[in-house]
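Hi R.,

Here's the input for the guanosine-5'-diphosphate complex you asked about:
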Amino acid sequence: MPEPIIPKSDLSQLATLGWNSEIAAGYEPYQSEFQVGRVVVVHRNLCRILSIHGELDAVISRKLQTDLTDTTGKTQYHLSEISRFPVVGDWALFRYSQKDGKALVHGVLPRRTKISRNDPGRKTDEQVIAANIDMAFLIMALNYDYNLRRIERYLAILWNSDVDPVIVLNKADLVKNSAALLRKVRQVVSGTPVLLTSALKNTGLEELNKLLAPGKTCIFLGSSGVGKTTLINTIIGEERYAVQEISDYRDRGKHTTSAREMIFTESGGIIIDTPGLRRIDLWHDQAGFEDVFADIIELSGSCKFRNCTHTSEPECAVLAAVENGRLSPKRIANYRKLQMELATAGRKLKYRRDRRARISQQKQDRSHDRNEHHDRDQ
Ligand code: GDP
Ligand code: ZN
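And here is the predicted structure with guanosine-5'-diphosphate in place:
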């Protein structure tokens, strides 16, 4: 068997970046061919990688770039298991020349988890924006941003992605009834940790810190102004540098400071905080939805009609539960709204897939026709 490129003893250095035995197992098939490192930021065809060689600016191979486009109508996705365009948090497989310091990314290791959203340019296809995230802190501001329905919505998405959610109710100092609000949220989210914090007064942060375990990667989600930056600053005990202008990043001659998109906390936790994640419009999917609305789905088993929509049908168990106060009307309204969004997203996705298949079929037919003509002409 060929020698691994990185000696085992050196691989252990990657632990601070989130490396673990599961990722190591994923790397084994590639260890004699590629180096491995964690992607901290991606910009166009460049990405910055932290590896045993320190910080590297790497070029993303052309093959991975074309992998994203399917203008030919052919499905070029996933030419091989590793050929995916890197995103922040990925473990990149790259070749590195120590002589000239050049690195070229050839792929990424299989993702343990991923955070996706609807691609605003394409509307229907899933766009992965961060990979290998262990935990997501959902930050809400108790004074104005507190919204049980939105919590349900975020949870629906995260539960299916293997990313552990933690709800953080921030700005506790601004409301009088924070304890009551905390209880209310806990009722809705069965089992998900809920923390009460004030980033300004520095309260409740010990609990948050405890969750930032060594080698665990997390993200902070939430609307603008809820206190994400303040929380992160308080956790790391310093003001973060302004995110570096990405344009200098191309200028390899200049000294570039360490990317601030990936922050290493004193407790060993890793925080990914990118502008892309901040404007997240998460990708919905069916399975997570069913987890969040397990109570409603269970109730629908007792509806008279199998395909009951719980709107006006007779002997509907869901409507009955609303009637007798066991189910909140808001919750069922949110269920309907999310269900409708899911259906629309599903239809759009199907349309694109069908269209792609049709175009590729037409191409095949055309080339088949051409071959037939050719045969006849001979
Ligand atoms: P971000 O957009 O989510 O990153 O929010 P910021 O961290 O920039 O915070 C927005 C504003 O809320 C700033 O003026 C903060 O000082 C303030 N803020 C953040 N956390 C708290 C808190 O716990 N209590 C109070 N009263 N204000 C806070
Ligand atoms: Zn029903």
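One thing worth noting: Residues 93 and 183 are 46 Å apart (CA to CA).

Cheers,
M.
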